[in-house]
Structure formats: structure tokens, C-alpha cells
Amino acid sequence: xxxxxxxGFRIGGRPLAERLTEVLPxxxxxxxxxxxxxxxxxxxxxxxxxxxxxTHVIEQNLRSFIDTLRTGDTPTxxxxxxxxxxxxxxxxxxxxxxxxxxxxxxxxQVVWASVTSDARPEEVADVLAVNALTxxxxxxxxxxxxxxxxxxxxxxxDDERSARHTVLSALLDGDPAxxxxxxAGLRLPPCYIxxxxxxxxHPDEEDNGVDPLIAGRRKLRRLRVExxxxxxxxxxxxxxxxxGIALLPHETxxxxxxxxxxxxxxxxxxxxxxxxxxxxxxxxxxxxxxxxxAAAKLAQDVLAVATGSGRPPGLYRLDDVLLEYQLSRPGPAxxxxxxxxxPLDGNEELLQTLETFLRRGGRRQTxxxxxxxxNTVDYRxxxxxxxxxxxxxxxxxxxxxxxxxxxxxxx
Length: 411
What we know:
This protein has helices spanning 16-22, 24-38, 40-43, 47-71, 77-93, 97-116, 124-173, 178-183, 212-230, 259-276, 292-308, 322-327, 332-339, 348-360, 363-370, 374-388, 395-409; strands at 10-11, 14-15, 191-199, 236-240, 243-250, 280-287, 314-316. By secondary structure, the protein is of the alpha+beta class. It has a five-stranded mixed beta sheet. A two-stranded antiparallel sheet has the order 1-2.
């Protein structure tokens, strides 16, 4: 609704705008008292702020509302900008957005209660028109307040995220991170547990009817939220829907971490995977802040070994993949190991049978996995022994064959 002159609203026999202007100081105090009484968060604000900034905002908001009643026009851009700035200050103070918006509605309720009690029967039409204009006023003001609040929160979040990223980068680069941590409001813990994670696809990411980018972001958000929920302290992450690095703070020095600590971390990773709705495999290592860079490199190497050797989803430390890790180190021994299976190059059937037999540990289990007759497995194992000189059925050759397969995957 818009207009160039006073719409002529009368309640209690007097022009409404004139009446509210006369009682503006007392009305402002009543609104403030009601807000403090009904919203505990406002009651915790300093008295100086309540009598200063908050009172000023209430008064200006009431003036804008009275102008709307006087002219029929919604608030000007200047008036809305004032409300946006006020909402931004509430965001800085950490007052939740729903609380801020509730305060505006309480103000309107107080005004409405102060005028409608005097309404006369012949003023019903004016009461209804004022009600409609009040709803229009809230329709314009509420988005402005919400936008001002959210803009400030976004700025605060971006600043916080940037500061945390600076700390993460310093730790991963092996640079001193104390200054960056102080600027970010963080205390560096005695220990960081480094996770190098690979995250599988959520079913929605592979659904033709779903945008995979959106599904991936939703999966990542669930993963982060669950990780932060389970871990005390500030978790630093550099993650994509496919995985990445996470630094988990821990109050126990790295060298004092117990089996119980690692068992809990395994449960945490399991919960994170379940919440994300995707398989997660992670390499991990622990170190003090100054050792995070080396620990991250080790965790990534452990992850590469675990995935390369076909390990199932879960958490892996160096001790869990010690043999495969050592075999993955470059050198003449690694090259020599890989060549032991060179005679099988191009024969995927024999390679698959070998890998399955070594994993399953028996001809019948292998036959069941490959959907072939056990006699076929026996024939293929003999062919492998003839071609390589290594017999998968002989105990003394099994370790060498496993090592050769591991070396082959890394070349």
C-alpha cells in the first residue's frame, strides 16, 4: 500500500499516528521491558547497551511504523538500512537470528495491544486496514533485518574460515603456527591426529536423476558436522567430496596415545562414514603441532598403501600396513619383486585368480568368488607356478607372491 497523504486511520476517536507519536517515549520503554521479560538473551545484555543502542533501535523502529501508519507507505531505504545495521550488530554479539526477529514482532504486538483496546465499533474498518498495513510493514522489515544479520554472519564466517585455513596451511607446511592460531582465536593442542581420507560416492551422486555436485556437497556437509560433533576442540579440515586432510586436536601428547584412543578414533570414523552415507578409508598419524607436516605426509602414504593393497574401508596406521608400506618404497628390490609376476602380464584371468586365492586362502572359496569349478582354480594355480616359478599353494611362496603383487601395484 502506498499513499501521498494521511490515510486517516482513527482508533479511540483520534488519529492513530498522532496518538502514537505522543506516547512514543513511554511506548519505547514498554517495548523494551517486554522484550527483556520475554527474551532471556536480551536480559543478559549490558544495561548500558539496553538503555543506549537497543532503546535507540526500538524508538527508530516505532517511528518508522508510525510513519507507515501516517502515510500508508512502507519504510524508506534509509530506514531499512538502519535496521540492517542494527541486525548486523546483533549478529556480532552472537544473538540468534530467531531471537532478533522475535523482538521486532514483540514490538508490534505491544503497539497493537496499546491501541486496539480503545477501538470503537465504527472504527472496525480502520482496525482491519491498520492490521493489513502492519502485516505489510513486517513483510518489508523482516527480510531487511534477516539480510543484515546474515550478511554479517557470512562475513564473520568467512573471516573465521580464512583464519583457520591460515593455521591449517602453516601446520601442513611445517611453519610456526602460534601467531596465526592466536589471530584465529585458537589454542594449539599438545597433539593433532592427522587423517588423510578417501571418501566414496554417496548413492545419490550416482543417481541419474540427482545433481551429483549437490549430492556431493550434502555428503561433505554431513561428514564435517559429524566429525566436529564427535571431536572436542577445533577441527581443521581441507576436504572435498572425494576426501582430503583433517587435523583432529587431542589433549594427549602423540607418544602417549593409547590403544583406547585409537579404538575411539576408529569408532568416530565409522560414525562419520555412516552419517555421510559413504565409505571412508583413512590413513592416520599423530604429532605435536611442529610435526604435523611430517605426520600428514605419513598419513597420506598410509592411505595410498591401504587403498592400493585393496584394504576395506576403515582407519589405518603405519603398523597396520607395515609390510606393504615398506614394499612401496622405491628401489631395486621393489623393481625386482614386480618383475617376478611379469610372465602373467596380459593374462588378467590368472592375475585375478592369484589375487583371489591369496585373499581367500582356499581353492573352494576362490572358485565360489570367481564362479568357476574348483578344478579350474587348480589348473590356473598350476599355470601360475609354471610361468613364475612361485607356487601359490606352497607356504614359503605365499609371502613372496603377496609382496610381488603389492610391488606390481605401485609401478
